[in-house]
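During data preparation, a discrete fold description was generated, as reproduced here:
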Amino acid sequence: MSGHNPGSLRTPLKNVRRLGSAKEGATHFWQQRVTAVANVVLVTFLLGLIVSIAGADYAVVRRTLANPLVALPMLLLILSGIYHMRLGMQVIIEDYVSAEGAKVALLMLNTFFAFCVGLACVFAVLKLSFGA
């Protein structure tokens, strides 16, 4: 086998295809961890918010949610939560779907779904913040 390094852990097929670690796995791992930590902080904020407005009338709740100091963390929670959800589903799809065509289709649908849910949530927060 010419060109095959006996000390290499790559198979000849991977050498031809140039597949292997693209260092994407570590990035994905850290993105999941960072969004998880952010989500813990932001969900704690959300739970505190829910407790503070529990039993309030509609006008108070709407005025509270329109406050930028409430709306901005809500938007951050949406963005972080949706991104974390998409990353998690991507791992599940990559691990459990073996057919390449189905995998690509599901990964595309996963991104599309996350985008649509995120857009709807952001729209709702912005509508409350700027009045409807």
